[in-house]
From TrEMBL:
The keyword Hydrolase does not apply. Residues 46-229 form the NodB homology domain. It comes from Streptomyces morookaense (Streptoverticillium morookaense). GO terms for biological process: carbohydrate metabolic process. This is Polysaccharide deacetylase family protein. Residues 1-30 form the signal peptide. Keywords: Signal. It comes from the Bacteria. GO terms for molecular function: hydrolase activity, acting on carbon-nitrogen (but not peptide) bonds. CDD domains: CE4_NodB_like_6s_7s (cd10917).
């Protein structure tokens, strides 16, 4: 550090210090406003990140968690605050089993159809609902409903320590097109380091195709040597 201090001044020294801080073991990188759509290891790597939206819901989230436990895969759950309030035990199960949390708003309203203040309040209410269910749990990401990103909500999410989270593989499982079609959507779009989008909510929707397709997708990824990774945090 003496050499660094002697040779780097001002912003340079601050950047070097920030880089050292960010790379310290156990220290989470700070969130940025960028919408990430690749794993922490990077696009092109032999990794994937599985992201699961719109839950929790008793029927489907439990089936997904059982599947992930069986396959020893860690995923990111993009949780709707309303559903966290209804099913707090499921949020706890997600956290207890080592998965990561993503804030997916309180009521699943697209931020581009809200005022900036409404979108911020929606995000904050969802964080509160998630924390009421799982006190102290880290919420690493924020995903805008329907991918309705605005500069304001990206900045606000980052200010709350949540990395805006996109995706690179849309399985379109929410259209319930059949297990084979969901699998083929994955097969067509997946490249190494990709972030896969699937759904486990809501309770009123039939996600049985999603669960079955997820099993096939995880088998295919494992057969091809891909391992699960975090979605990237840019910082
Ligand atoms: Zn959603």
């Amino acid at each position: 550090m003496k050499l660094l201090g002697a040779t780097l001044k001002g912003a340079g020294a601050a950047l070097a210090a920030a880089a050292l801080f960010a790379s310290s073991p156990g220290t989470a990188a700070a969130a940025t406003t960028e919408v990430v759509n690749h794993t922490a290891t990077g696009a092109g790597s032999r990794t994937f990140a599985l992201t699961i939206d719109d839950g929790p819901s008793p029927t489907w989230t439990n089936q997904v968690l059982d599947l992930l436990k069986d396959r020893q895969v860690t995923a990111t759950f993009c949780i709707i605050g309303d559903h966290a309030r209804q099913y707090p035990d499921l949020v706890k199960r997600i956290v207890d089993e080592g998965h990561r949390l993503c804030n997916h708003s309180m009521h699943h309203v697209n931020p581009t159809r809200q005022s900036p203040d409404q979108a911020r309040a929606d995000l904050q209410a969802a964080s509160d609902a998630i924390h009421a269910a799982a006190p102290g749990a880290r919420i690493d990401y924020y995903r805008a409903p329907e991918g309705g990103w605005t500069q304001d909500i990206q900045q606000y999410a980052a200010s709350q320590g949540m990395q805006p989270l996109g995706w690179s593989v849309d399985t379109r499982d929410w259209e319930t097109p059949g297990v084979d079609a969901i699998f083929q959507n994955y097969k067509r779009e997946f490249q190494g380091g990709g972030v896969i989008l699937m759904h486990d909510g809501s309770q009123e929707n039939d996600r049985s195709q999603s669960v079955e397709a997820m099993g096939a997708i995880l088998s295919d990824l494992a057969d091809n040597g891909y391992t699960d990774d975090l979605s990237a945090v840019i910082g």
